[in-house]
Specification:
Two copies of one chain form a homodimer.
Chain A lengths: L4 H4 L3 H9 L4 E3 L4 E3 L8 E14 L5 E7 L6 H9 L6 E13 L1 H10 L1 H27 L2 H10 L6 E3 L2 H8 L3 H13 L3 E4 L2 E4 L6
The first copy, chain A, binds a DNA duplex through α8.
Chain lengths: 207, 207
Amino acid sequence: MLQHSILETLPEPLRREALSGLQPLHFEHGSILFRAGDPCQGLPLVLNGTVKVQMTGLSGHSIVLYRMGADDICTLSIGCLMTGDGFRAEAVVEDDAEVFMVPRGLFDRLMDQSADFRLGIMESYGRRLNDLMLLVEEVAFRRMDERLFQWLEARVGQGVITITHQELAVELGTAREVVSRLLKEFERKGLLRIARGKIEFTGWFAS
Amino acid sequence: MLQHSILETLPEPLRREALSGLQPLHFEHGSILFRAGDPCQGLPLVLNGTVKVQMTGLSGHSIVLYRMGADDICTLSIGCLMTGDGFRAEAVVEDDAEVFMVPRGLFDRLMDQSADFRLGIMESYGRRLNDLMLLVEEVAFRRMDERLFQWLEARVGQGVITITHQELAVELGTAREVVSRLLKEFERKGLLRIARGKIEFTGWFAS
DNA sequence: CGGCCCTGTGTGACTTTATCACTGAACCTT
DNA sequence: AAGGTTCAGTGATAAAGTCACACAGGGCCG
């Protein structure tokens, strides 16, 4: 159960060796995997749970850059691991997560000895780069009401979601007031109901 | 003269082998290294010149994501090379450039056999990821007049620059009208003079 | 040379988004 | 029940994006 597909691709002796040196770390909801400025301790392999990565700009505003889920790799850490620079973003655990922390030495060894491991790392990097490019486009050109709508739409399944307007503003990289006003408008249209710290889907959403 | 530092780190037999299989490709100003949707032919190592990478969103608007110069690696290509997906962005040559195109097979071999090569690739990836994160923050939170000012400031040395308002809008991911109005304002303040397709620095800028 | 056309720029009117400064409501604590 | 803290609502104003169109510079061609 506690495994990560990128380790499963390793040839048997190497896989054993890697797993023997790693014990899963448990992170609870709300805990911080790393903060802006922290030095990198190793490459986190996310086994389960979800972790959001967000950054705070010079202006003091924050925006969520991407999320990691089961079987994900914290690609952002690789650069820090290599250059020794600190993180520019922070990683906040949303759903309780378990993580393998691969230290620099082991990472180098796996990169050296397994083509599949290298492939996994590269693919992960590629996906992250793509995600960020799409985010740039979204932030630069898409309208806020559409973006908010899509964000909500992706979470309709849950019926009710627990989030404050401020947190939602960070998700989209905008101001709380903007989110409040748009939500009010959605409520007027009968798409949802607003409560303190909660949004309940109705009407069109609750299909 | 025609060399790339990531190849110079290779141990001697490998370096000779790599170089013997690569001939520099010449790209002129305005030519396209790759377009959105193109399959990836190999990993471009930029020897000299400059190349801008920009993407066009669903909305039809474009934005410049980053630039590559001498000794740079087109990190974006690695993801495409690995997954076989097409590019999401396009690369336009600004100053005439020469490029080594490393084919998949050689790339795999270099990744397999040289720790320094791996390090170079990883560092490049890390930098690109950082750049994009900063771009997200900039687009999301910084004011347009500041961003335009900084863009111009970075090019003051040239005295006069040749660029249309439309191109400048793509640099910043905004609309031409916005650029035109801001430039007019800078002109009123005596910072620069506008001519058709040109901007001449004066006053504060021409210190 | 004058007329034509294409590209680049200027501008007004209007919408959307961001910012600022508050008010008030909901919940928690004691 | 009182007081404090966090969350949400709102008006006023500024910044940025959108739309529609006028006009200007420069090249080309009859």
